[in-house]
Amino acid sequence: MIIAIDGPSGAGKSTVSKAVARKLGFSCLDTGAMYRSIAWFALREGVELSDAASLGVIARAKEISFGLTPGDPLPSKVYIDGIDVTRDIRTARIDKAVSAVAAHPSVREALVMQQQRIGANGNYVVEGRDIGTAVFPHAEVKVFLTASDEQRALRRLRQNKRRGIGSTDYEEVLSDIKARDRFDSSRAASPLKPAEDAVLLDSSTLSIDEVVGSICDLAQEKAVM
């Protein structure tokens, strides 16, 4: 079974996806980390973020893999070309670069193929921005998870402080979230939008447990149909 969780930046997709995967015994695929890894590699190599051809070459040639901690089905490490980029891809610099990288069809095509191959080998919770519309259009469960701009900015701010990376200025984080929403929703390749058959979940006033419970209920309903 594939559980597709889409939504804008800061909606809580990563936290919720990991919790759902643990509760159901699924694996978790963080597609956002894959795009972030391409952005990190491109910046390290001095590749312009507007250079679609070179970015496509990186996406096709550089293997992205995930490391696991024994006993935990969720990936704890992210690698590109064998380099551990787990922390490096969560910086404010990558926050600002990843949308431009993900907008290129050459990059999306290369990574979607890799994501589909991974998803074909088991039960996965997959989160991103076009999972239910482009990557796994036949996913058994589709959720579009969102929250107000202000709530998403507060969550991202707390996350950055906890991790010790990224901006800790509320106004800057809020501005970045709004800018990324505009970019992701208006890009030509797989724009951010709910799948027609997705369940919409606004988590602005919901706890993580409430959101996770709702998604697990949807999965269990599909499992018995």
Automatic annotation (TrEMBL):
Stated name of the protein: Cytidylate kinase
EC number: 2.7.4.25
Ranges for domain Cytidylate kinase: 3-220
Domain of life the protein comes from: Bacteria
InterPro entries: Cytidylate_kin, Cytidylate_kinase_dom, P-loop_NTPase
Keyword Nucleotide-binding: yes
One GO MF term: dCMP kinase activity
A cellular-component GO term for this protein: cytosol
Catalysed reactions, semicolon-separated: CMP + ATP = CDP + ADP; dCMP + ATP = dCDP + ADP
Binding-site residues for ATP, renumbered to this chain: G7, P8, S9, G10, A11, G12, K13, S14, T15
HAMAP family named among the record's database cross-references: Cytidyl_kinase_type1 (MF_00238)
Organism taxonomic ancestry: Bacteria, Bacillati, Actinomycetota, Coriobacteriia, Eggerthellales
Family: Belongs to the cytidylate kinase family. Type 1 subfamily.
One Pfam family this sequence matches: Cytidylate_kin
Name of the gene: cmk
